[in-house]
Amino acid sequence: MSDQTFRPRRSVLYMPSSNERALEKAKTLPVDALILDLEDAVAPDAKPQARVNAAAAVTSGEYGAKELTIRVNGADTEWHHDDLKAAAEAGPDAIVVPKVNSADAVLSLVDAFDAAGVPDTTKLWAMIESPYAILHAEEIAAASDRLNVLVLGTNDLVKELYVEHVPGRTNLVTGLQLAVLAARATGKVVLDGVYNDVKDVDGYLAEVEQGRAFGFDGKTIIHPGQIEGANAGFAPSAEAVENARGLIQAWEDGKGAGVVTYNGRMVENLHVESAERTLSIAEAISKLED
Ligand SMILES: CC(C)(COP(=O)(O)OP(=O)(O)OC[C@H]1O[C@@H](n2cnc3c(N)ncnc32)[C@H](O)[C@@H]1OP(=O)(O)O)[C@@H](O)C(=O)NCCC(=O)NCCSC(=O)C[C@H](O)C(=O)O
Ligand SMILES: [Mg+2]
């Protein structure tokens, strides 16, 4: 079973590492993971202090069970090397790298991680945010075991496609699904992009539901008000858990029959595997929330 079974990543919150108030607030927020941003959310002259803040947050031990990641500036920027050095010393759970466009880029990053002394325990999360990256998502995902998560960057994708953000994301559906297919084909986790309008609750919840239906493991978010929707939307519902338990019981009661029924529906081994996956996810979430 792939990684997401064991580590919930329903809600993954970006925060500008230059914003000390947000860094403080995040200690108590019920998110599964944090992305301490050094890239787009941080102005150029604030980047040195943001680096220091992000590293201090990672080493503070004050963020509980949250997965802590640092988003560095892209490999082609003047800040990348210093960001990597700071992240290497802090040793976050993962380093998020924006605008990863090819398998070669992944391999170069893995070399750069080693050269900078990034600990082996620090994974690579690659951002898929260009048309080229979408079309090469499977190669990117498969390029290294160090890469365990693909993160959609839908703001950059919209920009690169010369389109607009529209309700229902009809102009992104193909790209989103290609990214999910790439992740599933390679056993990696895949996170949906952000919803920019932090005041539009209905639009946000509709997008969470869509992301879940497409097969994403969780959603990247930008505001504390978006946490609850992602945590609920990307967790199995109480009904789904009850259904999974009942289905597995019906299968066991069938004592080796190749096919049984549960609530009037056909059940085969593949349905049992899906039910077991649902229960594993629910159990991992419940452990995290204890
Ligand atoms: C979007 C925001 C600028 C809104 O900020 P603000 O107006 O301050 O919001 P509120 O007043 O409603 O905030 C209420 C309290 O919550 C704290 N807060 C707000 N946002 C965060 C956060 N992200 N993490 C932690 N805490 C947060 C405020 O400090 C207030 O706290 P308090 O006063 O103590 O009650 C802001 O939300 C924000 O900056 N969000 C993150 C933006 C960001 O990181 N953007 C970069 C990534 S998005 C992206 O581009 C992905 C990708 O690359 C792509 O291409 O798509
Ligand atoms: Mg981006």
TrEMBL record:
It is an enzyme of class 4 (lyase). Pfam families: HpcH_HpaI. Keywords: Lyase, Magnesium, Metal-binding. This is Citrate lyase subunit beta/citryl-CoA lyase. Substrate binds at R71, E129. One of its GO terms (biological process) is oxaloacetate metabolic process. InterPro entries: Aldolase/citrate-lyase_domain, Citrate_lyase_beta/mcl1/mcl2, Pyrv/PenolPyrv_kinase-like_dom, Pyrv_kinase-like_dom_sf. Residues 10-224 form the HpcH/HpaI aldolase/citrate lyase domain. It comes from Nocardioides thalensis. Mg(2+) binds at E129, D156. It comes from the Bacteria. Gene3D superfamilies: Phosphoenolpyruvate-binding domains (3.20.20.60). Its cofactor is Mg(2+). Its EC number is 4.1.3.34. One of its GO terms (molecular function) is citryl-CoA lyase activity.
